[in-house]
Structure to design on (452 residues):
């Protein structure tokens, strides 16, 4: 299998944790996409993924899978023993819901902050963003503030249970963790007083698939410098 | 089970098709949310779904599930015979990918057109949208144009196979169909020359779970009049 991504970005980190959890690291070859040069919007890449985003997993039969949820569903079910996407109907529903919430309440507003408030990817990707308008940077700031505010909701959930969907971690926790790291790397100041969230983060970073890897190969400290 | 939604909106339609496909219609009680009055942003509703969107499915044990993908995963797996979300790892991956593409390439740009170009829900929901700026309506129009342009990609996929993920329909087709109907009801003029897409739409509307229901209880002709 081959993955097109860019090490150190949140979505690349999500799938690399899944690969480690499932013991599939060695079965994948990686190819780097130059996001600053907008290689993800080049014709050859759009033929793999018309959405123009990384990562893309190309299977041995040629099928190109994109979208972290889809790639995770594939990898997690390969051995017939899903641990990240749920086994029972209730688990599947809860995990998929929490996964989308981590995207909608955290990853997406952080992404808007990243692209509109600090414009960290620079000029080459501009044609694929919202066009210039006076309040664009302000709106990016507002989205960053939303991401910060939304963390309280996750903190509240994590007061009742060790992980977002219950006693064991799932792809929803991976997304939440990627969102937190992405936000910090983009320069957002997350509040320190969310105790349950802080405890959860320690638990998450002690997982076998994650331990010792945060801040190095998974998510770097600073995404604002190119 | 109880569903909070608003009949005639695209996400309500998606779940109602799933219920019909799985023979679960009679096991669900519906409660209407007044979207124009922003009831989906009221405190009691945000306690069910912090994202503030319909539908929400409340299970008998009290768990409130939101997000169409999550609700579909739950309902489709209840009888142990998933037909809309895939059985094999490859099917699961492909269906989830196509499902997100139907959202990203069609449902989301149509939603932006609906909220920013024509502002069809009116004043009550304004505080939850992007703030006023000069180019907002223009950006809504641009998103509508993107939705129209993106249909060519789906048409291309459907030249090779009867449904988005292969020989049988899945939740991805439900999302694509809801996006098409939503776009038309919002006033977008979709091109008539996309032959494979038109053929697919006929096939989809002849499915037992859909036949005779489009344009009536599922998606009305016009969402621009309140």
């Amino acid at each position: 299998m081959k993955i097109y991504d860019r090490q150190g970005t949140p979505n690349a980190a999500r799938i690399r944790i899944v690969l480690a959890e499932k013991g599939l690291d060695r079965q994948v070859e990686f190819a780097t996409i130059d996001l600053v040069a907008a290689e993800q919007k080049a014709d050859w890449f759009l033929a793999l993924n018309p959405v123009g985003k990384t990562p893309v997993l190309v299977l041995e039969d040629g099928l190109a899978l994109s979208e972290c949820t889809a790639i995770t569903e594939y990898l997690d079910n390969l051995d017939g023993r899903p641990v990240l996407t749920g086994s029972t109907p209730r688990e599947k529903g809860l995990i998929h819901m929490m996964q989308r919430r981590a995207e909608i309440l955290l990853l997406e507003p952080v992404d808007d902050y990243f692209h509109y408030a600090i414009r960290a990817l620079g000029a080459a990707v501009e044609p694929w963003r919202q066009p210039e308008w006076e309040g664009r940077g302000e709106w990016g700031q507002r989205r960053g503030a939303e991401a910060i505010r939304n963390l309280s909701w996750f903190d509240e959930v994590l007061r009742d249970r060790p992980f977002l969907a219950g006693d064991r971690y799932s792809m929803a926790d991976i997304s939440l963790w990627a969102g937190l790291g992405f936000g910090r790397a983009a320069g957002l100041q997350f509040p320190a007083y969310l105790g349950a969230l802080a405890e959860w983060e320690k638990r998450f970073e002690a997982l076998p698939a994650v331990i010792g890897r945060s801040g190095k190969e998974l998510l770097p400290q600073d995404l604002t410098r190119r």
